[in-house]
Design brief:
Length: 388
């Protein structure tokens, strides 16, 4: 919790810092990568850096955390912190890296804001940073302690399945034939590959099989300019070895027996497949509404699994929306829940592009679903906070 003096200073400077936070994060990353080029090469997503999305996500999280502290001084934004901590743990972030970030972040603040950064302002925002960093370090420590796997582990590809022209499923078993730690439906693993220029890049992919499988299974969509997705599609075949982290991720299925709605778009279908398989295996009895949006049936990855698992549920139903070629396969256009029954007490899980999730969330709230019962997953930097 911020001291009264720090809270007053942060409150007074929040607008100025918020207005400049984009410039600050731009300068921060430039300084950080100048001093530590290995971080860009081997840790940070180079595609997100080039697109600016990582900068937006960092700016949004800092601004959101500071705003929360001054308006809710007795509480921490644990949901936001947990999401960041899971991503950090999947990347292997350590406490020793936080002082490095502090050094370059605060140098960037001083450069951008100049004389406005008095000793009092610097001290107050240092308090904000270390409150956030300390909370993340604590959550990450707990996640590491709970994990049954330490560091990266080598897994051999035992099967590759071409789902669509641009989506492939990879099934892997541990090279050491040791026990396979459990996970929860909805979680992801970090996959590390070495690219042609020697860079070691890491990406997260949702697991697409229900918990309990002796394998790891994930689907990868090939995207334009995607370094890792294109490498996996072009070069990884049965018999090849990949490095995987332990499973992480805070969007996990909580089956309380309530009605459920699982809404996805595009490759956001992947965590939903694992959730649906688990619900089918455990005999979930309450209604489950499966909603998916895609460009066309031909690019709807894992569609057969989507339909099959939903059909196994006692009260499962699927509603698919396609922008093209919908006739006989689904409904035309974007997701419209106007005539879709959403039972009282429904818990919803969303995964897909931000515009899709925002639209579905608004429709669900309009149908009486409690905002606290709507959960989401963003692939890549979480820009929800950056835009709210």
């Amino acid at each position: 919790m911020l001291s009264e003096q720090s809270a007053a200073t942060v409150r007074a400077t929040l607008a100025a810092v918020g207005a400049a936070i984009g410039e600050i994060t731009e300068r921060f990353y430039a300084r950080l990568f100048d001093a530590h080029p290995e971080l860009l090469r081997d840790l940070f997503n180079r595609g997100n850096q080039a697109a600016g999305t990582q900068k937006q996500a960092l700016a949004g999280s800092i601004a959101a955390f500071a705003t929360h502290l001054v308006h809710n001084p007795e509480q921490r934004p644990d949901l936001m912190l947990d999401r960041i901590a899971h991503k950090h743990a999947s990347l292997g972030i350590t406490p020793e890296q936080y002082p490095v970030v502090h050094e370059h972040l605060f140098a960037a603040i001083a450069e951008i804001l100049g004389d406005a950064v008095t000793p009092e302002v610097a001290a107050a925002w240092t308090d904000v940073y270390w409150l956030m960093a300390g909370a993340l370090i604590a959550v990450e420590k707990r996640l590491y302690e709970q994990s049954e796997q330490r560091g990266r582990r080598e897994w051999k590809v035992v099967e590759r399945i071409e789902e669509t022209a641009d989506v492939a499923t990879f099934r892997l078993r541990p090279v050491d034939d040791g026990p396979v730690p459990g996970y929860r439906a909805g979680q992801y693993v970090s996959v590390g590959v070495t690219l042609a220029d020697g860079a070691r890049q890491i990406r997260q992919y949702s697991l697409t099989a229900a918990p309990g499988s002796p394998e790891r299974q994930f689907a990868v969509k090939r995207v334009a300019g995607g370094e890792v997705s294109n490498h996996l599609h072009a070069h990884v075949r049965e018999g090849d070895v990949l490095q995987l982290s332990a499973p992480y991720g805070d969007l996990v299925l909580e089956d309380t027996g309530a009605p459920l709605l699982l809404a996805s778009a595009g490759i956001g279908v992947t965590p939903m497949i694992a959730m649906l398989e688990q619900l089918a295996l455990t005999g979930h009895q309450a209604p489950v509404t499966v909603v998916h949006a895609d460009h066309s049936p031909a690019v709807h990855a894992l569609r057969s699994d989507h339909e099959a698992y939903a059909a196994k549920l006692a009260e499962g139903r699927s509603v698919f929306f396609y922008e093209q070629d919908a006739e006989g396969a689904g409904r035309p256009g974007l997701v419209d829940l106007a005539d879709v029954d959403v039972p009282a007490g429904t818990h919803a899980y969303l995964c897909g592009p931000l515009p899709f999730m925002r639209a579905v969330r608004a429709q669900l709230i309009g149908k009486g679903v409690a905002p606290a019962d709507i959960h989401y997953e963003v692939f890549g930097p979480d820009l929800w906070l950056a835009k709210d």
